[in-house]
Design brief:
It contains 17 helices and no strands. With 310 residues, it is mainly α. 44% of the residues are buried.
């Protein structure tokens, strides 16, 4: 399955997205070094003077090495706790993040982290709602988790939107996937290539909205041309549209990018069969079986191989 339906499901919080959500980092249009140092100095002065916004900004700087300060979770936590004491809901969420993960000078304390997440979430902070929802999901409380993730997503939190798309798609397994479409679309509208890919793949699997799926899949590939899963999705959409030769080219490219991906091999088998190349299709499917550890998947592919003999 090419859907970045997390070939990791909710740890399916993309790491890069999560770090971006936490640090507030944007690698584009970075300021010059001297100007950046001046900015850091100004933020430090404001934080020392009791400015809660500056405290949170300074704490975030210590979570990342992109602001010319060394990563130091203890220093970050100090500023976050100071801002939280002044009523900052955002700071509560960051306190939870630091304590939940620990390291870099801070001892992990998940129970305390959870209390911070809950307090931030209840105060309406979208990052707190995201993290609290994730913790509830990890504990098996899906209903409550979805409620908090949706609160975060409604406020535009991209990671929550992508996670909800994954969760609803997994829950519905191709049945009524309106929830998945809704949240993938919201995230795709925020220029998230993983959401574009997932939305396109979902529609391709259902045989719906194929023209729109082609647009989204193409955009995802243009944003991440070295992503084999995205190339596979584009090829699969083309297959569903009946453009078999073009689909085969895209899937061959995907296989070069992700040579061990059994889903791509399966798709190549399907296209080869449509093009009348039964021997080639059989070879792809045999390779997929050899390289897969998933018995259910292997049984499904074996059925395809058996059908070739009829």
């Amino acid at each position: 399955m090419s859907i970045k339906l997390l070939r990791t499901v909710l740890s399916g919080f993309c790491a890069a997205l999560l770090l971006s959500a936490v640090t507030g980092c944007d690698s584009s249009a970075r300021p010059q070094a001297k100007a950046e140092r001046d900015t850091i100095k100004a933020i430090q002065e404001k934080a020392a003077g009791g400015d809660t916004v500056a405290m949170v900004k300074l704490g975030r700087m210590f979570l990342s090495d992109e602001d010319e300060v060394e990563i130091n979770y203890a220093e970050a936590l100090k500023w976050f706790e100071s801002a939280a004491a002044k009523g900052s809901a955002e700071a509560l969420a960051y306190c939870g993040y630091v304590l939940y993960h620990g390291g870099n000078g801070v001892e992990m304390d998940k129970p305390k982290a959870l209390s911070y997440y809950k307090a931030a979430a209840e105060k309406g902070d979208r990052l707190g709602q995201l993290f609290y929802g994730q913790c509830l999901l990890d504990d098996g409380n899906r209903t409550a988790a979805l409620a908090w993730l949706e609160k975060s997503a409604e406020q535009g939190q991209l990671t929550a939107q992508l996670a909800l798309g994954d969760l609803y798609y997994g829950q519905n397994s191709g049945a009524d996937s309106a929830g998945a479409v809704k949240w993938y679309k919201r995230a795709a509208d925020q220029e998230c290539p993983a959401a574009m890919n997932n939305l396109a793949y979902l529609w391709a699997e259902q045989g719906k909205e194929l023209d729109k799926a082609l647009v989204w899949a193409g955009k995802a590939v243009s944003m991440e041309p070295e992503n084999g899963a995205f190339a596979d999705t584009l090829g699969w959409v083309l297959f569903k549209k009946g453009q078999y030769n073009e689909a085969q080219g895209r899937l061959a490219e995907a296989a070069k990018l992700n040579p061990g991906d059994v889903n791509i091999l399966d798709h190549l088998g399907e296209i080869s069969l449509k093009l009348g190349k039964k021997t080639e299709a059989a070879e792809y499917w045999k390779r997929a079986i050899e390289q897969s550890a998933d018995q259910e998947f292997k049984d499904k592919i074996q059925q395809k191989l058996n059908s070739l003999k009829k």
